[in-house]
TrEMBL record:
InterPro entries, per the entry: KR_dom (IPR057326), NAD(P)-bd_dom_sf (IPR036291), Sc_DH/Rdtase_CS (IPR020904), SDR_fam (IPR002347), Sec_Metab_Biosynth_SDR (IPR052178)
Coiled-coil spans in chain: none
Family stated for the protein in its record: Belongs to the short-chain dehydrogenases/reductases (SDR) family.
Alphabetical list of SUPFAM superfamilies matching this protein: NAD(P)-binding Rossmann-fold domains
Organism: Streptomyces albipurpureus
Protein name: SDR family oxidoreductase
Pfam families in the cross-refs: adh_short_C2 (PF13561)
Residue span, Ketoreductase domain: 3-188
Domain of life of the source: Bacteria
Annotated keywords: NADP, Oxidoreductase
Gene3D superfamilies, alphabetized: NAD(P)-binding Rossmann-like Domain
Keyword NADP: yes
Length: 248
């Protein structure tokens, strides 16, 4: 039986690869994100996919997205939080105050990575399939290492205790909640500028597999966690990084 799979940030990168994976199984995929044009192009490439444009940092727009999903589908079987970023593509503030720049960076990262996931989850919490619902968050190797932007790593790490709390609250309803923490993944638009070749090679050398990740590596893990075979796995953080960061 086809499931309803909602994927935030599903228009590009890991989110789109995840949408492809679920759609290939015959699931009904709904893409949510800020950019209507990006979502529309992505949905056209997937069988039976639909999309809804909403800025998930805005409670009013999240409420509209939740109302659309409830009206059109009733229950949500799988909720995947792929929206986020390191703030590199967001508007910069014009200020000579270094503390203002810090405040802006941290605020933007928590809005993009933490608030979007929390608002959409809370809006849909009562509409998750019971039993059998799945909530899946995308964290990052930066949540362990503090690599890159400290604000980005902290905003991803904040998802971990939230997921644990949700798992405890939703477990009695037969709903699992898990986190996938990828290492560096190629073929995405995460970075505003391409990584220098030397940096890319150095990061690949940190892995045990000798390569960087691909969107399909993460999508396959998310798909498995949403399967019936993973029904007794909850409140876990699954790292997908080729051994660049070892288990905790």
């Amino acid at each position: 039986m086809a499931r309803t799979v909602v994927i935030s940030g599903g228009g590009t990168g890991i989110g789109f690869a995840t949408a492809e994976t679920f759609a290939a199984d015959g699931d009904q995929v709904v893409l949510i994100g800020r950019r209507e044009d990006v979502l529309a192009r992505a949905a056209e490439r997937l069988p039976s996919a639909r999309h809804f444009a909403a800025d998930l940092r805005d409670p009013t727009q999240v409420r509209s997205a939740a109302a659309f999903l409830e009206r059109e589908y009733g229950a949500v079987d799988v909720l995947v939080h792929g929206a986020g970023g390191n703030g590199g593509r967001e508007d910069r503030i014009e200020s000579d105050d270094p503390l203002a720049a810090v405040a802006h960076d941290w605020t933007v990262n928590f809005q993009l990575n933490t608030l979007t996931a929390a608002l959409l989850t809370e809006a849909l919490k009562g509409h998750l399939a019971t039993p059998g619902g799945r909530v899946l968050f995308l964290s990052s190797i930066a949540a362990y290492r503090g690599s890159g932007s400290a604000a980005y790593g902290a905003s991803k790490a904040a998802l971990h205790p939230y997921a644990f709390q949700l798992a405890r609250a939703l477990g009695p309803r037969g709903i699992t909640v898990n986190v996938v923490a990828p290492g560096l993944v190629e073929e995405t638009d995460f970075f505003a500028d391409p990584l220098p070749r030397e940096r890319r090679e150095a990061l690949a050398a940190e892995t045990d597999t000798g390569r960087l990740g691909h969107p399909g590596d993460v999508a396959g893990t998310l798909h498995w966690l949403a399967s019936s075979g993973a029904g007794h796995i909850t409140a876990q953080i699954i790292q997908v990084n080729g051994g660049a960061e070892r288990g905790h």
